[in-house]
Amino acid sequence: MLRLGGVPEHFNLPWHLAMASPELGDLNLTWEDQFGGTGEMIEKLEAGTLDVVSILTEGTVKAIDAGLAATIIQVYVSSPLQWGVFVPADSVFADESELAGARIAISRFNSGSHLMAYVHAERLGFTIDPDQFVVVGGLDGAAEAMTAGNVDLFLWEQFMTRPLVEDGTFRQLGIQPTPWPSFVIAARNDVVTGHTAALGRIVDAVIAQAAAFVDRDDRIALVTDRYGITAEAAEAWFASTTYSRRQSVDPAMAVTVRETLARLGAAG
Predict the structure, then answer these.
(1) Which CATH number fits domain 85-177: 3.90.1300.10, 2.60.40.10, 3.40.190.10, 1.10.150.130?
(2) Count of other CB atoms within 10 angstroms of residue 79
(3) What are the strands of the beta sheet with 133-135, ordered from one edge?
(4) Tell me, what's the pLDDT at 140?
């Protein structure tokens, strides 16, 4: 059995379509939603409780550099992730330029919400003290912390977070794109060597389903029905998202991530 995982977001619908397809019907596969995001998946890869993941690029590169026994085997989403910059709806902050020193909610350390906070701060000319970070565990935890007044700022994928803006929990101040492809497919090294054929079939099927997904006539309904976002948001998400072709991973991508995180003081 191979245990697959990723965040319960629209990006990963091609995984579910692939697992339901005849191409993978003879493989023993399970999928587990990872509500804690990249940090949770890294912990589970280290613990051996996940085998293959759809995961954010920056957190994966950092974890591998820190000793995680895993390999990036494919870029999954080649377009940048559009991180929304959110504050509580009743926040005193009216503009991103005012956010220096804000208490920053993150799902976990070394997660995307953690590492992208440094990218966001650099764009605005801020430095971050690690004491500003508050671990909240994910989107639900961030909503609770925002409502309780325990945090001031949270970065998360903007389309999945839009319902919390619409219901008056969050207010969006801006967008922070990643400076690299947003999602990769990674696997533990023992899976890469011990399940090579199965792993290749999984990646082939997922990439094929992703390519077909964006052209399906029912793609908007698939996303809105499963993930609870509006048709307008789904249309905007499709317009901003490009899935990767099946190809080798360019080593320069990891170099860019590594150098950026080191420059920002987020590599340690």
Answers:
(1) 3.40.190.10
(2) 15
(3) 133-135, 104-106, 153-157, 82-88, 170-177
(4) 94
